[in-house]
C-alpha cells in the first residue's frame, strides 16, 4: 500500500518541518512569486503567447493562493512563536497569507455566510438543550413547539438576524481591508517584499532576527 508519511505527521511535526531557514526562505520566495505574478501578467499582456500563459497562471494562482495563504499564515505563526525576534519575517508571512486568502474571500458575501453558519450552529445547540425539556411538565408544550420545524425556523431566523447585524459590520470592515490587500498594486508590493525577505533569509538570516532554531 502507498504510504504518505506527511499525512501521519502531528501538528508538532508540521511546525518542526518549517523551523528551517531554507524551507522558510523558499516559502517566502515562492509565495511572494504567486503574488507578484500579477506584475508579470501586466508586463506580458502585449505579447500574445506569454500574455495568455501568464493570464492562465494568474487564474490558477488565485485559487491555489487561497491554500498557500493559509499555509503562509500558519508558518508566520510558527516563526512568531519560535523566533519572537524575527517579527519582520512573521509579519511578512501573515500579511502575504492574508493577501492571498482575501483574493478569494473578498468575492464572497462573508457576512451572509457567517450569519448563516452561526444560525445553523446556534439552532442545533438550542435544539439539543430543549429536547430533554419536551418531557418536563408545564414547559413541555413550549419545548415541543420550539423543537418543531416551525420553532427551529423562528429560532434560526432570530439568530441569523442578530449575527448578521452584529458580525456583519466587523466582517465588512475586514472585507474592505482584504480588498485593499488583494488589489494588484498592494499584492505585487507584498509579493516583492516577501521575495526580498526570503533572499535575506538565505544570505543573512540574522539580519531579520533569525537565530539558530531550537
Describe the structure.
There is one protein chain. The model has no long low-confidence stretch (mean pLDDT 78). The protein has 214 residues and is mostly helical. Helices cover 78% and strands 0% of the residues. The chain contains eight helices and no strands. The protein is elongated and about 75 Å long. It has one domain (18-207). The two termini are 35 Å apart. It has helices at residues 11-17, 21-44, 48-82, 87-105, 110-130, 140-146, 149-182, 184-203. 26% of the residues are buried.
What's the structural blueprint in terms of helices and strands?
Elements: H1 11-17, H2 21-44, H3 48-82, H4 87-105, H5 110-130, H6 140-146, H7 149-182, H8 184-203
User: Quick one: how many beta strands?
Assistant: 0
Percent helix among the residues? over 70%
N/C terminus separation = 35 Å
Q: How many helices does DSSP assign?
A: 8
Q: Tell me about the biggest sheet? A: none
Mean pLDDT over the full residue set: 78
Low-confidence stretches: none
Strand content: under 5%
Structural class: mainly alpha
Order of helices and strands: HHHHHHHH
Rg for CA atoms: 24 Å
- Characterize the overall form: elongated
Write a concise synopsis of the structure shown.
The protein is an all-alpha fold. The chain has one domain.
Please supply descriptive tags for the structure shown above.
mainly alpha, 214 residues
Amino acid at each position: 500500500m502507498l504510504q504518505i508519511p506527511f499525512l501521519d505527521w502531528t501538528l508538532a511535526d508540521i511546525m518542526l518541518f518549517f523551523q528551517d531557514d531554507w524551507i522558510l526562505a523558499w516559502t517566502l520566495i515562492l509565495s511572494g512569486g504567486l503574488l507578484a505574478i500579477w506584475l508579470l501578467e501586466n508586463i506580458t499582456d502585449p505579447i500574445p503567447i506569454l500574455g495568455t500563459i501568464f493570464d492562465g497562471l494568474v487564474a490558477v494562482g488565485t485559487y491555489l493562493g487561497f491554500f498557500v495563504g493559509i499555509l503562509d499564515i500558519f508558518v508566520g505563526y510558527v516563526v512568531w512563536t519560535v523566533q519572537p525576534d524575527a517579527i519582520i519575517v512573521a509579519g511578512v508571512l501573515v500579511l502575504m497569507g492574508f493577501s492571498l486568502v482575501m483574493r478569494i474571500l473578498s468575492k464572497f458575501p462573508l457576512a451572509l455566510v457567517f450569519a448563516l453558519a452561526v444560525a445553523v450552529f446556534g439552532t442545533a445547540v438550542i435544539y439539543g438543550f430543549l429536547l430533554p425539556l419536551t418531557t418536563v411538565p408545564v414547559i413541555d408544550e413550549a419545548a415541543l413547539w420550539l423543537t418543531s420545524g416551525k420553532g427551529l425556523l423562528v429560532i434560526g431566523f432570530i439568530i441569523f438576524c442578530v449575527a448578521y447585524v452584529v458580525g456583519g459590520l466587523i466582517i465588512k470592515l475586514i472585507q474592505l481591508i482584504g480588498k485593499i490587500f488583494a488589489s494588484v498594486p498592494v499584492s505585487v508590493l507584498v509579493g516583492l517584499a516577501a521575495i526580498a525577505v526570503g533572499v535575506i533569509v538565505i544570505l543573512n538570516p540574522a539580519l531579520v532576527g533569525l537565530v539558530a532554531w531550537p
